[in-house]
């Protein structure tokens, strides 16, 4: 989960005619440009956002150039459609948590039925329904999307998926501040947690000055909303998770004494009341972060970050790494990320399905 500067560099072909290749870098990445091969360009690097790290807006002043057209294909899928909208009246996380239908539309590949609790838990099936009876496998989705995504972006997806796990998930119960929920989402994504659950968010209480804290992490996570703690815990237990609630009490186990290689759901509670009595009663164990100062608790988003970070460290120590998806699961999740990549991804997949269907020979009678 980088510092940046805003730059605007305009160059023309005559001024670069006899120049050596130049490199314009954004953070740790450098892009080589050969002046003779390209027409006049305007480069505008804006402040990076989580959904589009290390990318440039590249606008060609001569769209009929073959070289600029070829470059345009690679860049177009990284365009502004892939960025969050800076609408001051709407916070993305708040909107998702108060509009459950939008969360279901966020997830693209077909999901398992609620009663299908395969262990270890993985939510997706190897199928994407395109309508009109067409269905693509994860391999077909990746083939369809490959020409419209830069290799840098595909490699970033592969790295993220390699370090993803459903073996430990995060549960937030009854938080008042959407900023805290956003911060926990951001930490979950950064640390390789794919599954997060939100129980009964209190939409009547929120602080509007925490907008955009998530940095777009919600786009890449599997978010599930629950109306009750009992229902959430019941489903999580059926998926094979033990429920560990954070609690300061005599029976609490230090997080440093826990084996995080076991499938575990980490539960953090309300900013003021903490974990509910119902959650404490239904959980399998209570855990706590040892405190060495005068205060006896962390901010809830900070506590969630510490818990998840320690879980990753412990799992890495015991298992060699945190990410534990199989090759098939990784391929499916990679297809899921590709379909979430931009607004045009679904249309691209649909067109691919139409072409594939049209090219399929009819069976002989």
What is the fold's blueprint, element by element?
Layout: E1 7-11, H1 13-16, E2 22-26, E3 29-33, E4 41-45, E5 57-60, H2 66-76, H3 92-98, H4 100-106, E6 128-131, E7 134-136, H5 138-145, H6 151-162, E8 168-173, H7 178-191, E9 195-199, E10 222-226, H8 229-238, E11 242-246, E12 253-254, E13 264-268, H9 277-282, E14 285-288, H10 300-319, H11 327-340, H12 345-359
Parallel strand pairs: 8-9, 8-13, 9-10, 11-13, 11-14, 12-14
Antiparallel strand pairs: 1-4, 2-3, 4-5, 6-7
Protein name: tRNA/rRNA methyltransferase SpoU type domain-containing protein
GO molecular function, one term: RNA methyltransferase activity
GO biological process, one term: tRNA guanine ribose methylation
Distance linking N and C termini: 58 Å
| N-to-C SSE string, H for helix and E for strand | EHEEEEHHHEEHHEHEEHEEEHEHHH
What general form does the structure show? Answer: elongated
The major β-sheet equals: 7 strands, parallel
**Rg, Cα atoms, Å:** 23 Å
The beta-strand count equals 14
Number of helices: 12
What is the helix content? Answer: 25-40%
- Name the structural class: alpha/beta
User: How are the strands of the biggest sheet laid out side by side?
Assistant: 10-9-8-13-11-14-12
Global mean pLDDT: 77
Strand content: 15-25%
Quaternary structure of the protein: single chain
**Low-pLDDT stretches:** 1-90, 205-211
Structure description:
The protein is of the alpha/beta class and 365 residues long. The protein is 35% helix and 17% strand. The protein has a seven-stranded parallel beta sheet with strand order 10-9-8-13-11-14-12, with helices on both faces. The protein is elongated and about 70 Å long. The N and C termini lie far apart (58 Å). The model is unreliable at 1-90 and 205-211 (pLDDT under 50).
